[in-house]
């Protein structure tokens, strides 16, 4: 890894929006991307796809696989240990991994639990595990980016009609993203004096495998506000805010 490149870990980066984040950041020549996936084999497959794409040329040295299942504390701690042993520190952390609902047939309690395990508890544990590596970094612009959603905005839920709020999976998914927003706000305050910005980002309604290919945007475009949250602007001003392209009038 070139010393001039910032080291960034992206969870859930083997597909969808996470893959597009990795693709655009790795191809910029400014970052060494740690492509996080639940298994090394999935990460390796994604990296091969990155290297074969001519539209976003990526050098092999600009991306490395990391096995990390954010619903498994042991997997998270093992990933943090591996990054520490190989790199010593981490410059940017992007908590992207997420699910819309639990497995078919789950009762409401188990469905909420499944979504929160990944979308909320996973974010909390990943931040806790990798914070020592962010603290060890000498990078001038250390950041944690939590991928949220406009669906997690309380004001948007209040503004939507009955039909939108009654859709299957809406309650657990929106509630989980509202919780992610709170984690972002709390950590932005706690880490302000250490100079680590904590920023939320909402990609918008994107066509990915998570929603059956529905959506108004391509994942490539959905990745852009997340990358801005991780790399652009004044970190002190962005910390504790939500970077988004749509529905900005709803605030948090």
How would you briefly describe this protein structure?
The chain is of the alpha/beta class. It is built from nine helices and nine strands. The radius of gyration is 17 Å and the shape is globular.
Please name the defining characteristics of this protein.
252 residues; alpha/beta; Rossmann fold; 7-stranded parallel β-sheet; two-stranded parallel sheet; 9 helices; 9 strands; 46% helix
Evaluate the radius of gyration: 17 Å
Order of helices and strands: EHEHEHEHEHHHEEEHHE
Number of helices: 9
Q: What structural category characterises the helix and strand content?
A: alpha/beta
Helical fraction equals 40-55%
As for the number of domains, it is 1
Provide the spatial order of strands within the biggest beta sheet.
3-2-1-4-5-6-9
Family: Belongs to the short-chain dehydrogenases/reductases (SDR) family.
Protein name: Short-chain dehydrogenase/reductase tropE
Organism: Lachnellula cervina
GO molecular function, one term: oxidoreductase activity
């Amino acid at each position: 890894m070139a010393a001039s490149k910032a080291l960034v870990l992206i969870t859930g980066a083997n597909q969808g929006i996470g893959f597009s984040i990795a693709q655009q950041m790795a191809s910029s020549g400014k970052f060494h991307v740690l492509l996080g996936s639940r298994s090394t084999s999935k990460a390796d497959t994604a990296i091969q796809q990155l290297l074969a794409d001519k539209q976003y040329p990526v050098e092999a040295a600009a991306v490395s696989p990391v096995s990390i299942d954010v619903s498994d504390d042991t997997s998270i701690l093992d990933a943090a240990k591996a990054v520490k042993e190989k790199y010593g520190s981490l410059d940017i952390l992007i908590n992207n991994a997420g699910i819309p609902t639990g497995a078919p047939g789950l009762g409401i309690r188990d469905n909420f639990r499944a979504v929160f395990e990944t979308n909320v508890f996973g974010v909390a544990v990943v931040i806790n595990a990798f914070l020592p590596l962010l603290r060890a970094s000498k990078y001038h612009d250390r950041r944690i980016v939590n991928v949220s959603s406009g669906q997690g905005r309380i004001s948007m839920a209040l503004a939507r009609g009955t039909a939108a709020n009654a859709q299957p999976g809406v309650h657990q998914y929106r509630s989980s993203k509202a919780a992610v927003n709170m984690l972002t706000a709390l950590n932005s305050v706690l880490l302000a004096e250490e100079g680590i910005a904590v920023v939320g980002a909402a990609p918008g309604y994107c066509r990915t495998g998570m929603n059956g290919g529905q959506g108004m945007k391509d994942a490539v475009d959905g990745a852009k506000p997340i990358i801005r949250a991780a790399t652009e602007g004044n970190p002190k001003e962005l910390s504790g805010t939500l970077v988004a392209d749509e529905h900005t009038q709803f605030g948090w």
